[in-house]
Amino acid sequence: MQDYTRHYVGGRWAAGSGRGFTSIDPYTGEPWAQHTEASSADVDTAVAAAAAAADEWGRTPGVERGRLLDALAIAVQDNVEQLAKIETRDSGKVFRENRAQIAFAARNYRFHAGSADKLTGEYKPLDTEDMVDFTSREPVGVTALITACNSPLSQLANKLAPALAAGNVAVVKPSEHASASTLEFARLVEEIGFPPGVFNVVVGAGETGTALTSDPRIGLISFTGGVGTAKRVAANAAANLVPCVFELGGKSANIIFEDADVDRALVGAVAGIFAAGGQTCIAGSRLLVQRSIYRDVVDRLAERAGQIRLGDPNDPDTDMGPITHRGQYDSVLRRIDEAVQDGARLVTGGRQADSGPALFVPPTVFADVTAQMRLAQSEVFGPVLAIMPFEDEVEAIQIANGTNFGLASGIWTRDITRAHRVAKRLQAGTVWINTYRASAAQAPFGGVKQSGYGRERGTDALLEYTRTKNTMIDLSDSTRDPFRLAT
Ligand code: NDP
Q1: Which of 333, 347, 334, 263 lies closest to 305, judged by CA?
Q2: pLDDT of 38-77, one tens digit each?
Q3: Pocket around ligand 1: residues whose beta carbon is below 6 Å from it?
Q4: Which atom of ligand 1 approaches the CA of 452 most closely?
Q5: Distance (Å) from CA 380 to ligand 1 centroid
């Protein structure tokens, strides 16, 4: 068993005072990492350490913050294999996907290494020449960064890179199911020489998260996870009027029109739902297919899903690993049963008689799913696809927008005017046209409706972690009438 019982607080490795717990490898079923939960008192110490470091870090020149972030980008890239191995043990996601995601995390640190000295304000021309007015962007101070169980280090980079670049300090809490990689990442931060307190990690579940999100010294909470948890976080934050960035779940629609390059669309549809075993927020979990090609697409998709190889996530021949933890595994199976009860047609996959110690759910495809079914409305967070037919563009848009979510969407068509027409009407933070799951360090990411608010990545993310200050200077020699507000 690996020892990950210490938290990283104020530049030191401290023993947590909460209960001990283990992380289970979802492929072997064996506990592999030992942790200790951070109690409310431990969280208090971590926030205090961050608050003590906030002022100096906020005043550190951007070029110096950028230098450290650049070193972090290099360190993450240099350690990509080791970090990916750890995440594979925690999450069960295949090693090559973890490696690619962590390499992308390094790219995000590099992007914000370059943005740290480019935070500018604006000169505001006023109605009088006697006054000068300008804005500047200031850090919010202590940020609380909470990541989900599926991709801790890539989610952390989405948050930490812009937060540090903008001059904030951070207290990070990863999921209890996947904490080890964040603690390993803290060793890199320590080696690089970030000032103590700028970056802190506390590990734990409910009590830890509640203590962190209820602390009045927090200036902003950035949270990735489920809608239900987000509402609890929002309630804690509301008590102190702390702003939040929420990256939540989805029920994203991947729409194939009859004029699409169907071979390409099928590749996008399969990757859209089965990459990471469907345990991604952007999973294209609803496949909307135009009626004229519906039957053909269902058959071909089922065939491809049946070819996906489940197995050891470290084996390069494995396409899909297990579900990350037992609670999520049971939830996915319940959702499969529910879909059958609701009358969806199971085309391939479904419940397996015995999957052994590994938490395997086979690639599962349901066809003839209707908009009212639970499978069409709520997130499964597993390898379960709902295929739905549509007649025309109007109906496709109506079905696509007919959930409480709005994270991502895909459009497959050769008609450029249709692509733009539909893209404009889709209620989603991201629209992919003739591709799916593509990401870039420069491109903003986030949701609408119950998929969340606020944006990660690129310059949009940098702005989330700052507040505008307005400065006004009176240039005249005479005393201005203080009761005349307008200039
Ligand atoms: P959860 O909502 O269960 O957990 C998310 C994080 O919140 C974990 O660190 C969790 O800790 C923590 N947490 C739990 N209770 C509290 C609390 N009361 N206060 C503060 N923090 C708390 O999500 P999962 O980890 O299961 O991840 C799956 C969800 O995340 C899916 O809905 C998925 O769509 C979404 N997601 C969204 C992404 C996006 O960018 N939009 C990306 C990836 C996933 P612990 O696990 O220890 O309980």
Answers
A1: 347
A2: 999 999 999 999 999 999 999 999 999 999 999 999 999 9
A3: 146-150, 155, 173-177, 205-206, 209-210, 213, 224-226, 229, 232-233, 247-250, 281, 379, 381, 407, 447, 452
A4: 41
A5: 14
